[in-house]
Amino acid sequence: MELKEVIGRRRTIRYFQSWRPVEREKIQIMLEAARRASCAVNATFLKAIVVDRNKLDQATVDAMKTPVSALNIELAPVHIYTYVDFGAYVGAQARLKKLVDVGALNATHGWSHKFVDEFVWPNILKPLADNPNQASVAAAAASDAGIAICQAMLAAVDEGLGVCLSAFVHDAIKKVINPPDNWMPLWALLVGYPAEGWEAGGQRPRPPMEEQFFEGKYGVGFKPDPKVTEKLVEAKMIQAPAPLPWRKDEIKALARMFGLPE
pTM of this prediction? Predict the structure, then answer.
């Protein structure tokens, strides 16, 4: 698929074919997409642990569930537990020098090994590495991790998979997957083949563009060009909005299939 269509097809899938395994190849593709994401100071903040749902005992699965994520966690055959690694700043000095060496950071913008050693490390990286728990560091690291997670989700959609970002009770799974203590839990990225149609009832409603984005200054809404909107419809980034006419019947059928309340 073209990128615009992949973006348009992405949904939060909440009904998975729990009986159908996900090919390891497709998980690798997702992880590679995440690995290629932009990251500040070339620090790899995102870390993740991939777990086969069927290899977890039921008591652990039940303990992980939250009131809004219980069924999602139960049905998804693959769980990818995502974290921010606050130790990612360690080694960032050397990684920045490597970017200088390969021509990604250049003298035209003031970069050199000397600049990294004498300015970037003592004034930016070392203070961050010494105080990883400050709010600004956590926010920046989580933003970088979010970009990587998004790329993994889009890669999954392109592979025909369904994905759902889910909250989870970290203490329940921590003893099983053993993440380092300096990793901050983010989300469980649930992965599997959709049991519902890929449309999942249609594209979700969003606020008007001019209420979310502004031009020049706050209060001046960014007005979309109808011609551009038409092109995005043709490219399938903008798709039929929810609810599609058959959605309620689809939910009833899914409820019967999984033995859930209607």
Answer: 0.94
Hunting for tokens 């926010």 — which residue is that? 139
- State the DSSP H helix or E strand holding residue 110, giving kind and residue range, or none if neither: none
- For the domain spanning 3-195, the CATH number is 3.40.109.10
CA-to-CA distance for 230 and 241, rounded, in angstroms? 15
Question: CA of 253: how far to CAs of 196, 224, 249, in Å?
Answer: 9, 38, 6
* Helix 135-158 / helix 24-35 crossing angle, nearest 10 deg: 140
User: What gap in Å lies between CA 58 and CA 18, rounded to an integer?
Assistant: 14
In what helix (H) or strand (E) does residue 217 lie, and over which residues does it extend? none
Q: Is the peptide bond before 241 cis (omega within 30 degrees of 0)?
A: no
Give the sign of the dihedral formed by CA 235, CA 241, CA 243, CA 246: negative
pLDDT for position 180: 96
Is residue 26 within 8 A of residue 159, CB to CB? The reply is yes
Domain residue spans of the chain: 3-195
Model pLDDT for residues 207-245, shown as the tens digit of each residue: 999 999 999 999 999 999 999 999 999 999 999 999 999
Q: Which residue, chain included where needed, has tokens 């959609």?
A: 157
